[in-house]
Every structure is written in structure tokens, then in C-alpha cells.
Specification:
By secondary structure, the chain is of the alpha+beta class. Helices cover about 25% and strands about 30% of the residues. The strands form 15 sheets. A five-stranded mixed sheet has the order 34-35-36-37-43, with no helix packed on it. Strands 1-59-58-57 form a four-stranded antiparallel sheet, with no helix packed on it. A hairpin with a 4-residue loop joins strand 12 (about 185-190) and strand 13 (about 195-200). The longest helix is centred in the C-terminal third of the chain and has 37 residues, at about 985-1020.
């Protein structure tokens, strides 16, 4: 829609014409917005696994492509999300509302087509997550988690343990499933058969980890860890007279840890077991084979390996049994939460192949070089006798189990926030015990995660050279295997989204609005790509408490944040060239905190930056004293003005990659470094500071020309300040409650504010008066901004709604519902006329809205054209008597009255052709059968709704009942119920009015009998004396028989006149009848049946005669006066 010409010359609050600012070009108003993308939480803590969907060959299921999926716990549900963009693919949930079951953990089938879950109500379920339809409770998808592809279907379920299951895992073949619960038991289930094969008991604490040996075909072993700080090794092999369940036994109890074990892994060759726990110890174990001949040495090895289970059989009765021996204990000085054992191929792909030694360069240490030199020259410096003796000692040493342990690598993640990769190999000296273990890679600098990690797994098949680290604040980070730097981040949970700002493109001709900066209830600030809503960069490491406010410079290179820790941070954003590892287009965005501003005495709840680009170009060049300024305010009620100063010791053009390369130098650029990251300069003195309000300041906004600063406060006022010296310019008063937001118009001299009094107000910057007051929100207005060059206002409230207002008409054009909680953040894309908006709320949802006014208008126009064409086609069909086409078009157009007329015409046109027999009513109902047979389920449901309305009117009830009768005959009751499932009140409405119509028909039928009786009686009371009626009656009687004619004639004579002097005639008639009877009886040739009929007729005639006599006497008793002669003449 184009704005009327009168609006072009509209005078603004400051006296300027709004049209003049736009060059006299009208701006089309917005009418409708729609959510195009949504970033929701997918992980709230618990287990994380990766899944590769199997190809769907000859199966029916959801087509989710070949993208790898990440399976996570989200509250009490299990969510499957696309690794590429984080969008939800499927959700597994057991019920909803109060009866919803809480899922505790899950396990992913190795093939990827099945997922097993354990719930709090002790049930173990298997799900087909690819199913497109389901009748189970899993199809009840919450509105907050819209699933785009599939609705998982429960295949089977049964009770697993007496208490909830806390750990579960498939074996490599997918035929066995191990579960461990809080009942201290470990069970193994046959997945295809659905029965328990082993039930292991022995733990004295809650089982929190189970894992199969990777070579399950050759070594049928199961590892379980418990809160009793032990790891038990179970054998699945059957032993006569031993074990329970399927005959398995506990081989060994590993007791080298002093706290809960959180990680268990087996090397690629299956001979090395690695365990790690929260006691900051990593234990390396050797898995070896013993026979009966070496049973004497088993006791000495068991001392170092741990205690042997008392219930396990001896080696003599259980030959070829694996024994596990402790080789090395490594202190890592952090609580380990994740352990990944790397294969040789993975290590080579990550750049750690050949095990070249020390960190970041592969250069061997001096000790390693000496040992290697000695090993290489050992055969030439020793005699054959010494060499053979050395070999005999090596083979006879029962404690030397390192010889069977090959070199390998493993990765650890824990509370320190560093991921490290360790390399282990046997020591050079064959007589030395233990292993040589060293760190070959670890995170450094900005890649360190201060809040720590909660888990670590393989990066998956699509990211085979990556590691997936799970952070304590529910983020999923893919780390490059070589440098362990962050490649990409998938945000698992945003918590409450507090602030959102668009990040303009810093390049010439770059796409505007391609990224957004989001501050949630966290010390981190996240930058999302709007293309796939994946987290591209994290601003972390500086704020120690929640970030409450954020603002972005107009050139997109600087970000200012303020938090509860009373500090303001200035961040520099740089875009580096993509290394090609992740396959993403464009560069990689990196962030560095270049300065901290301190001075506030309470939380910083609002920050703002000047809007002119010239000042930031001067700042990027390393200049000082420019117009690039930042303002901050907060709960301490003060406003502070900060001059943005670049770091004096480094140039802005130096990329972060270059700084990383120079991070290992002994002398940093600032004279002091920590972990290779330059320290941040802190500024404590603001260029200006003023006590601005009486209560907390909620929002700040800078005018487009950088002349004014507006501050909104809980003291119900908005104040305007001069940006040069923070001198007060004006005060806007009028709100009845605290003001939450303020924004300047891009064209006019006015501002818009939103308040807790549920109103939106527009204020003049000339006389500080209120120009407009918009009311419509049901709760506090938390955000408001201008659209369409100041012609419209977009607002967001605590009621979870967004409203679009036209300023000139003061009308609400549209109301959008996209959040389930209050909307805290609202940002409009720069450039492009404001056709994209991002909102964030307390429901942890980030929505990307787009203006769909043009699309909806085009769709409405196309729909109207199609409607006109169909209307014309309907009229043509009615005119041509093409009833089939007319009925179909009437249903498509949803024209119930036109459909009724067509059906009524069909019934009326068919009525003359029906036979006039008693079956005509039943034949009329079959006229509509050909039409009913062609109706689909949707048409039947639509027709049933129309019948309910038609049946309420007596004029239309006949047609409705005819159609209903045909439906009941031709359509099964089951199908009718399915068609009316969406309209449960249809059947009840039809039944009520149908009973009413039936009662009315019964009354009508009874009344018709009374009319028949009355007419018959009236014919007896007032017969015609002569004329045409008598003649017609005589003809009819003649046709029936002579006898009937004589009787009728006698009756007419009796009823002629008042009945005077008719007794003699009646006697004569009786005499004649008697003579006639005598003559008929004299003829013996007539049958006996005729005689009986005559007797019955005679008796009937007597009764009629008596009745006529009574009627006549009653007529005499009335004494009817004869009409005068004059009136008789008139009658004649």
C-alpha cells in the first residue's frame, strides 16, 4: 500500500515536513510480519551423542537427508538436531502436561535408526525416530519446539530396573544394550528379543557409566563405573555353575580411583584400557590373556591391578580369561569430565601422527633423543649373550606388561577449561615400569573456556578431525584436532535473551544484517549468523557476571557490553579468511576485548554508541580524541561518557591470527601476557559523569546526528542530554510508570517510548510535548522502535506480543505472537527499509521476523482472482444444469447457501419423474447418491457442518434430512466419525434438531387423521342435494356396484333436508332390500362368500342408519330457524 499524498507534506514535530526528508517519495506501509527462522534451545544438560541417519531404502520414513544429527537431552525430552544449522529434526517425548514422563538418559543405535530411552517411571523404550506419523504420546509436540521432519514412534517398551536407569549403551553390533541404574545393578538386554541376558550385581553405589569393549565379537567384556569409585569388568561368556542371568561373571574390580569415574575408553587394538575420574587421575591399564599355566603369577599382577572379585572363578576353571593390570597413573590436576581415546587414523588426521613428541612442533626432548640413541645402538654395543639374557629376563618378568601395550593417544576435558591431547608409549628402557605420557596439544589463549567442560566426544563422521566439547553452560563446541581451536559453536540453551543488536557489515558492499549480537542470562555475548542461526563467535573472558546490555558501532567493527559486574567492555571484531575446514562460506569472525571501563558502582543496564561512521574510521586508524563515544548507565542512576581509545601498543589492522602466531614469544607486545593473550587495558576515569535520574536507568539511545542522548528510567521520565558534556536539554514527563525503552526517529524530530503503564508515546523534541499515545498492549511495553522511515512503530511487550502501529491513524495494523514469555529484546535490521526484525524473550527463543506484506498482498490478489473465476464457473454450471460441477465448486468456494439451492433444485427436478406410489419418499433420497459417492472425507466433514445449520430451519430441514439419510446409507459410521472428528458438536446438533423434526412429523400425521375423520363426518352432515357432485358420486357408486348405489341412495334420502317424513321412505328401502335379499337367497347358485359380504354390509348400513338418526335428532334439537325469503332469493 502506498501512503496517501497528504502524508508526504505532513509536518513533523520539529516543524519539518516528513516528506522532505525522503525526497518526496512515499514509503509503503507494512501490514504483516511472519517468523522465518527460530533459534531455540536444544540442550539443558545430560548426555550428548552423534547420530548418522541410515539411508532410507525401501522404507517409509522422514527424509532428513544425510546430515549428521546431534542427540541431546532437553529437559525431560530427547531432541535430535541437525549438526549443520542446529534446527530440530525430531523430538522424543512421553506425554504432556501432568502425566508427562521424564526421560533420564538415552542410547543411540550404532546403525542410527533406533534410539533407546529410560524414563523416571522405570520404563525402557525403543523409538523409531524417522517415523512420519505416530499415534503415541510422542506426537504431542510442544509449541515451543516445532519439529519439521518426523514424529518418533515407540516400537516396544518394558520395565528395566527397580529404580531409574542412569546409564545405558549399545554394543558395536547393536544387538545388546547395557543399562545401569541407581539400584546398583547392571543388566544386559537382547535388543531384538527384548529379554534380559545378564543381571550383574556387586556395585555398592549408583552405576553412572557402562561401556562395552569395542571388539565385542572376540572379547565379550563390559565395563561399569559407580559412585563407589570402582570400575568393574564383567565377562559375558557363559561359565557352568557361575554367575547369574546369562552366566557372566565379574572378572575384576579396578580400585585405583578415589572419586567417581567419568570416562572409560579402550584403545584401537583392544589391549589398553584408560579410565579417568574427578580425582584428577588418569589410569592406564593393560588387558592381557592368561592361561592355566600362568595362574601362579596372577596373584602378583592382581595386586597392582586391583582386587579380584570373590565370586569369580579361578583361572583353572575359567581358562583364557582376560586379566587387567595397572600400567600407569597420571595426575592431570583437573577434574576430568570427558575422555576420548583416539585411533591411529584419527591422530594422523589431526596432525598428531607418528607421535613426534613435545608440544606444537614435534621436536623430541633431550631425554627422548638420548633414549632413542641408546635403543638404536644397543645391539652393536652388547654381546649376543647379554642380549639373549636381556630377552630372557624380559620374558620372565611377570610384572612387565608394558610390552603388550602399544602407543596411542587420548583427549581429556575437565574443569580447567582446557582440552588436552596426550600421547602414551612404552618407555625406552625395557626394564622400566610404566609408560611415557606427554601432552602433545592443548588449548591456549582465547580458546580456553574458563567455565569448564562437562563432556567430550568424537566430532563425528562429517568432522572426523574434530572433537566435540560440551561446556558447562550447555554449548556444543567443535574443536579442530590440530590446534584445538574452536571451529564452530552450537548454542544448546540461551536462557533469557536480554538484548539483541544487528551487526552491520564492515565491508564495502557487504550484506547488511547478516549477523546479530545476543546477550542472554550469561557472562557470554554470542554472535549468530542469521543464515543458519549458528553461533559464529563468543565474546567471553572479561565479564564475570551476566551481561545486561549491548550496542554495536555503525561500521560493525566495535561492540560495547555492560554487565552486572559493573564494568563496560569494548570489543574489536575482525573477520579472517576461512581455512576451509568447516565448509562454511565467508570469513570467520573473531572478537578481542581491547579495553575495560570501570567506574560504575552498580550493574550497568544500558549502553549506547554514537551513530556517525566518521569517528570510527578515525578510531580504526589508531587516532585518539575522535567522535567515537560510548555512554553507559545503570542501577547507580548515573550516566557516564567514555571516549573510545584503541590499544596504544597494537594496530587495529593486526589480525587475531597474527597475534596467535606471535603468542609464544617471550616478550609480548604489551610487556606482559598470560597464555599468549595480550592483557586488556582498564580505564577507570570517564570523560563525563552525571547523576541523571532518581531511579534505575533502563535504556539509552543516541540521536542519528549524535547531538542528543536520551535516557529512560524507572522514575517515569525520559531525559535528553547533550552528548558533548552531558548537560540536560529537556525532560519528557507523562508516563504513569517506569519507562523501559526509548528510540529516536530516523527522519522526524521525535522519540518513541514504551512504559510499564502499557502505553507507547511519541514526543516532540521541539517543545517536549506528547504527540501520540498508543494503547493496546496488555502488559508493560519493553521495546519500541521506528519502521518505514518513521511512519510506523513496532512494539514488544511483556505479554509476549508484538504490535505494528501506523502513526498517522494511530491504529494497530497487526499483532504478532511469536513468544511464550515477555519479549525483552527488539532489533530492526539496518538498511533495506527495516524489512527484518529479530526478537528475543524470556522463553529462550530468538525469532527472525520478515515483512511479508507484499507476499500476502500478492497471495490475496491471486486468491481473489481465482475466487472470481470459480464464482463465474459456478454460475455457468448452474445455468447449464451441470449439477455435479456446481456442487463441487460450491464446496470449494465454501458457499453453503448456493450449495443448498443446487441440491434443492436437484431434488425438485427429480420429483416429477418419480412414481406416485408409496415408495416415492424413499426414491427421492436416492437421487443424491451419485453426488454423495464422489465426496471426499473433507467434503463430508464440510457438508456435515452445513447440515447442522440447515437442520435448524424447518424450511431447509427436508433437504438436510434427505442428504443425511443418504450419508447414513452410503458412508460407514467409522468414516463419518473420522470426518466429524474436528467438529465434535456436529452430531449432537443434528441429533437434537432431528428429534424435534420427527416429533413435529408425528404431530402432523396425527392431525391428518383428525382431518380425514372430520371430512368424512362433514360429508354425512351436509351432503349435496343434487347437481354435479351428486351425479359424480352416483357415477362412482355405479362403478362399484348396484347394491352400493342403492344403499348410498337410501342414505342420501335419509340425510336430505332436515330428515322430516323420511321414515316411510326408509321403510320402503328396507322392504326393497328385504325383497332383494329374498330373491338373492332363492338363487342357490351364488357362493357363500357373497352372502357373508352382504351380511356385513347390512350390519354396516344399520349402524350408519342409527348414527344418522342420532345426528338428525341433534339437528332438530338445535331448532335452526329457516332463512327468510328475501335471503333465500339472494342465495339463489
Amino acid at each position: 500500500m502506498v501512503e496517501p499524498p497528504s502524508l508526504k507534506a505532513r509536518s513533523g514535530p520539529g516543524g519539518e515536513a516528513a516528506g522532505g526528508a525522503t525526497g518526496g517519495v512515499s514509503m509503503a506501509l507494512s501490514r504483516a510480519w511472519a517468523v522465518k527462522k527460530t533459534q531455540r534451545g536444544i540442550y539443558t544438560g545430560g548426555k550428548v551423542a552423534l547420530l548418522v541417519p541410515p539411508p532410507l531404502i525401501g522404507e517409509v520414513g522422514a527424509d532428513v537427508g544425510e546430515n549428521e544429527l546431534v542427540v541431546t537431552m532437553y529437559g525431560s525430552d530427547v531432541i535430535l538436531s541437525d549438526v549443520k544449522n542446529g534446527q530440530v529434526v525430531a523430538l522424543i517425548s512421553c506425554g504432556e502436561g501432568e502425566g508427562k514422563e521424564e526421560l533420564v538418559t538415552f542410547a543411540v543405535h550404532p546403525i542410527g535408526h533406533e534410539i533407546a530411552t529410560a524414563s523416571r517411571n522405570l520404563m525402557l523404550r525403543y523409538w523409531d525416530w524417522r517415523a512420519t506419523g505416530s499415534t503415541s504420546s510422542s506426537s504431542n509436540i510442544p509449541s515451543s519446539l516445532p519439529v519439521s521432519s518426523s514424529h518418533p514412534r515407540c516400537l516396544r517398551s518394558y520395565k528395566a530396573h527397580d529404580t531409574p536407569v542412569l546409564a545405558m549403551e549399545y554394543d558395536r553390533t547393536g544387538t545388546l544394550l547395557a543399562t545401569g541404574g541407581s539400584d546398583r545393578a547392571v543388566k544386559v538386554w537382547d535388543v531384538p528379543g527384548g529379554f534380559c541376558t545378564h543381571n550383574f550385581k556387586g556395585h555398592t553405589g549408583i552405576v553412572n557409566l557402562v561401556s562395552f569393549h569395542p571388539d565385542s565379537a572376540r572379547r565379550e567384556m563390559l565395563f561399569s563405573a559407580s559412585d563407589d569409585c570402582t570400575v568393574r569388568v564383567w565377562s559375558l561368556r557363559a561359565v557352568a555353575g557361575r554367575g547369574g542371568g546369562g552366566g557372566g561373571v565379574c572378572l575384576q574390580v579396578l580400585e585405583n580411583h578415589m572419586s567417581a569415574v567419568t570416562g572409560v575408553g579402550v584403545s584401537e587394538d583392544g589391549c589398553t584400557l584408560i579410565t579417568a575420574g574427578r580425582d584428577q587421575i588418569v589410569s592406564v591399564w593393560n588387558i592381557g590373556d592368561t592361561s592355566a599355566s600362568s595362574s601362579s603369577n596372577s596373584s602378583s599382577s592382581a595386586v597392582r591391578a586391583g582386587k579380584r572379585d570373590k565370586s569369580s572363578p579361578s583361572s583353572a576353571s575359567f581358562p583364557a580369561l582376560e586379566t587387567i593390570t595397572l600400567i600407569e597413573s597420571l595426575p592431570v590436576y583437573e577434574e576430568v569430565e570427558g575422555l576420548v581415546v583416539l585411533t591411529k587414523d584419527e591422530a594422523h588426521a589431526m596432525g598428531h601422527g607418528m607421535w613426534l613428541g613435545s608440544e606444537y612442533g614435534g621436536r623430541l626432548t633431550d631425554v627422548e633423543e638420548d633414549a632413542l640413541h641408546q635403543n638404536r645402538h644397543a645391539p652393536s654395543t652388547r654381546s649376543d649373550g647379554n642380549s639373549s639374557k636381556r630377552k630372557r629376563l624380559l620374558n620372565s618378568n611377570p610384572t612387565n606388561t608394558v610390552a603388550s601395550t602399544r602407543e596411542g593417544a587420548f583427549a581429556l576435558a575437565g574443569g580447567s577449561g582446557k582440552v588436552r591431547i596426550y600421547h602414551y608409549k612404552p618407555k625406552a628402557d625395557p626394564f622400566a615400569r610404566g609408560l611415557s605420557i606427554r601432552v602433545v596439544a592443548e588449548q591456549r589463549g582465547a580458546d580456553i573456556y574458563p567455565r569448564g567442560y562437562a563432556g567430550l566426544i568424537h566430532g563425528g563422521k562429517t568432522h572426523s578431525t574434530y572433537l566435540l566439547a560440551v561446556t558447562t553452560d550447555h554449548n556444543l563446541q567443535w574443536l579442530r584436532g590440530g590446534s584445538l581451536s574452536r571451529a564452530r559453536v552450537l548454542v544448546g540453551f540461551n536462557d533469557q535473551v536480554i538484548a539483541v543488536k544487528y551487526l552491520p557489515s564492515g565491508k564495502e558492499g557487504g550484506k547488511e544484517g547478516g549477523r546479530v549480537v545476543v546477550a542472554s542470562n550469561s557472562p557470554q555475548v554470542r554472535i549468530f549468523r542469521l543464515g543458519d542461526l549458528s553461533c559464529e563467535c563468543l565474546l567471553e573472558g572479561q565479564h564475570t557476571e551476566t551481561v545486561l546490555s549491548v550496542d554495536v558501532s555503525p561500521d560493525g567493527r566495535w561492540v560495547v557490553t555492560g554487565g552486572k559486574d559493573r564494568t563496560v567492555c569494548l570489543w574489536l571484531l575482525e573477520e579472517e579468511e576461512q581455512e576451509g575446514e568447516t565448509g562454511e562460506e565467508g570469513g570467520v569472525l573473531t572478537a578481542t576485548c581491547v579495553r575495560r571501563y570501570e567506574g560504575h558502582t552498580d550493574a550497568v543496564s544500558a549502553v549506547a554508541m554514537t551513530r556517525r561512521k566518521a569517528g570510527y574510521l578515525h578510531l580504526a586508524a589508531g587516532g585518539m580524541g575522535g567522535t567515537a563515544l560510548a555512554f553507559s548507565a545503570g542501577a547507580d542512576r548515573t550516566l557516564k561518557r567514555w571516549i573510545l581509545i584503541p590499544p596504544a601498543s597494537e594496530k587495529i589492522s593486526v589480525s587475531r591470527k597474527s597475534r596467535r602466531e606471535d603468542a609464544g614469544k617471550e616478550v609480548g607486545e604489551k610487556g606482559g601476557e598470560e597464555d599468549g593473550v595480550p592483557t586488556t587495558t582498564t580505564t577507570t576515569e570517564a570523560s563525563a559523569s552525571v547523576l541523571g535520574h532518581d531511579k534505575d536507568i533502563n535504556a539509552l539511545s543516541v540521536a542519528p546526528n549524535d547531538a542528543l542522548l536520551a535516557s529512560a528510567s524507572q522514575d517515569k521520565t525520559v531525559k535528553l542530554w547533550d552528548t558533548k558534556d552531558l548537560s540536560l536539554v529537556g525532560v519528557l514527563k507523562g508516563h504513569k510508570r517506569g519507562v523501559w525503552c526509548v528510540d529516536f526517529s530516523p527522519i522526524d524530530r521525535c522519540v518513541v517510548t514504551g512504559s510499564g503503564d502499557r502505553t507507547i508515546r511519541l514526543w516532540s523534541l521541539t517543545d517536549f510535548s506528547c504527540l501520540r499515545s498508543l494503547e493496546g498492549h496488555g502488559a508493560s511495553v519493553l521495546g519500541a522502535t521506528f519502521l518505514r522511515n518513521g511512519l510506523q512503530v513496532l512494539s514488544a511487550g511483556a505479554d509476549g506480543l508484538m504490535k505494528l502501529w501506523t502513526i498517522r491513524t494511530q491504529e494497530c495494523e497487526a499483532t504478532m505472537d511469536g513468544h511464550e514469555d515477555r519479549v525483552w529484546a527488539l532489533a530492526v535490521a539496518p538498511g533495506g527499509g527495516g524489512r527484518q526484525v529479530v526478537t528475543g524473550g524470556g522463553d529462550s527463543v530468538l525469532n527472525v521476523w520478515e515483512d511479508v506484506t507484499k507476499e500476502e498482498e500478492e497471495v490475496a490478489l491471486a486468491r481473489a482472482e481465482a475466487m472470481v473465476e470459480k464464482e463465474q464457473a459456478l454460475q455457468n454450471s448452474v445455468y447449464r444444469k451441470d449439477h455435479f460441477q456446481a456442487v463441487r465448486l460450491a464446496l470449494e468456494l465454501a458457499r453453503p447457501f448456493r450449495l443448498f439451492k443446487v441440491l434443492q433444485e436437484i431434488l425438485e427436478s427429480a420429483a416429477p419423474s418419480l412414481p406416485s406410489s408409496s415408495s416415492s419418499s424413499s426414491s427421492s433420497s436416492t437421487v443424491l447418491d451419485p453426488y454423495i459417492r464422489e465426496w471426499s472425507d473433507k467434503d463430508i466433514g464440510q457438508i456435515m457442518g452445513y447440515l447442522r445449520e440447515w437442520n435448524t430451519n424447518a424450511k431447509h430441514a427436508m433437504v438436510a434430512q434427505t442428504i443425511l439419510q443418504g450419508l447414513m446409507r452410503l458412508v460407514s459410521h467409522k468414516r463419518l466419525n473420522q470426518c466429524c472428528a474436528s467438529q465434535p458438536s456436529v452430531l449432537s446438533g443434528l441429533l437434537a434438531y432431528s428429534e424435534r423434526h420427527l416429533a413435529r412429523a408425528d404431530r402432523l400425521l396425527q392431525t391428518s387423521f383428525l382431518v380425514d375423520y372430520t371430512l368424512s363426518e362433514m360429508q354425512l352432515l351436509f351432503p349435496q342435494a343434487g347437481g354435479e357432485e351428486e351425479e359424480e358420486g352416483g357415477v362412482e357408486e355405479e362403478e362399484k356396484g348396484g347394491k352400493r348405489d342403492v344403499k348410498q341412495k337410501g342414505l342420501s334420502l335419509l340425510m336430505d333436508g332436515n330428515g322430516n317424513g323420511r321414515h316411510d321412505d326408509a321403510k320402503e328401502v328396507e322392504v326393497e332390500e328385504k325383497e332383494e335379499k329374498d330373491s338373492s337367497s332363492s338363487s342357490s347358485s351364488e357362493d357363500e362368500e357373497e352372502e357373508e359380504e352382504e351380511e356385513e354390509e347390512e350390519e354396516e348400513m344399520k349402524q350408519v342408519y342409527r348414527r344418522s338418526q342420532r345426528v338428525t335428532e341433534m339437528g332438530r334439537s338445535r331448532r335452526v330457524k329457516p332463512l327468510p325469503s328475501s335471503s333465500m332469493g339472494k342465495v339463489k
